[in-house]
TrEMBL record:
Coiled coil: none annotated. One of its GO terms (molecular function) is double-stranded RNA binding. InterPro entries: DHBP_synth_RibB-like_a/b_dom (IPR017945), Sua5-like_dom (IPR006070), SUA5_domain (IPR052532). It comes from the Bacteria. This is Threonylcarbamoyl-AMP synthase. Signal peptide: none annotated. It comes from Streptomyces pilosus. Pfam families: Sua5_yciO_yrdC. Residues 14-200 form the YrdC-like domain.
Length: 206
């Protein structure tokens, strides 16, 4: 059964955040809120976590996983960004955007797109997520909590606990979060390509 953590949305309890971070370090797969919607998350190098996310969402090996980063400095360790792309990404973070960019050697090969050698990255604008990332000290490997056959991501912590009780190890609930997944922008070819229109305003990339 998944552990259920009820966290204050504006002042997340340090002890609770510490417990969740410890469980991630020990290999846990969690469901957690972001500024766009709930996501599944695990430690960066957790093959078991990746396999479990693929199973829950029925994903193939072409799916872009996302590294959810605390800040721009951390993001820059995992992707290569030229000057023009740097300005566009910097202006849009933190926020409800995921950017697909060429991965650096810091990114495990199992997380990279098999042909393009790219990975998704984002910096969320969410107090609880930021507190967790600060405590963890590294990015969370993540994927939107969108179940197979459904059009919208899950948005309620209690519902996630009920439906995924034996598939995740913990659910972090801080009340309502977004209902739309992130807007996905692919910069791997140098120009902005809108892959998914979501919570982030796409007008600056058109």
């Amino acid at each position: 059964m998944a552990k259920y953590f009820d966290v204050h949305p504006d002042n997340p309890q340090a002890r609770t955040i510490g417990q969740v971070a410890d469980s991630i370090r020990s290999g846990a797969l969690i469901a957690y809120p972001t500024d766009s919607c709930y996501a599944l998350g695990c430690r960066l190098g957790s093959r078991d976590g990746i396999d479990r996310i693929r199973t829950i969402r029925k994903l193939d090996d072409r799916h872009h996983f996302t590294l959810v980063c605390r800040d721009f400095a951390q993001l820059g360790q995992f992707v290569r960004i030229d000057n023009d792309v740097f300005r566009a990404v910097k202006a849009s973070t933190p926020g409800s955007y995921t950017f697909i960019l060429p991965a650096t050697k810091e990114v495990p090969r199992m997380l990279q797109h098999p042909k393009k050698k790219t990975v998704g990255v984002r910096i969320p604008d969410h107090v609880v997520t930021q507190a967790l990332l600060a405590e963890l000290g590294e990015p969370l490997l993540s994927s939107t909590l969108l179940l197979p056959g459904e059009d919208e991501p899950m948005t309620q912590g209690w519902e996630i606990k009920d439906r995924l009780d034996h598939q995740v190890d913990a659910v972090l609930d801080s009340g309502d979060c977004g209902t739309e997944p992130t807007t996905v922008i692919d910069f791997s070819g140098g120009e902005a390509e809108i892959v998914r229109r979501g919570a982030g305003d796409v007008s600056r990339f058109e």
